[in-house]
Design a protein that fits this description.
It contains five helices and two strands. It is globular and about 35 Å long. It has a two-stranded antiparallel ribbon with strand order 1-2.
Length: about 80
Amino acid sequence: MHTAELLSFYAPGTTFADLLWDCADDTDQVTYAIAYEAAELHGLDVLTAFIQEYGSALNWTDCGVDAGELLHWLGY
């Protein structure tokens, strides 16, 4: 299920930031896959910049991306 599909299960008024925080673990990290999809939803230019900034998925198999940092980076 993609992030956009997940939004349909949330109450009206739920923001993208709310959804991303719900995906975060106890240390406020989201998986690389979720971070990648968040960037992808913001367009190809943002996704390209995300890959340049955060690297490829091969570098993130055991790590997460800080949800707050990612939201700030995406402009929220």
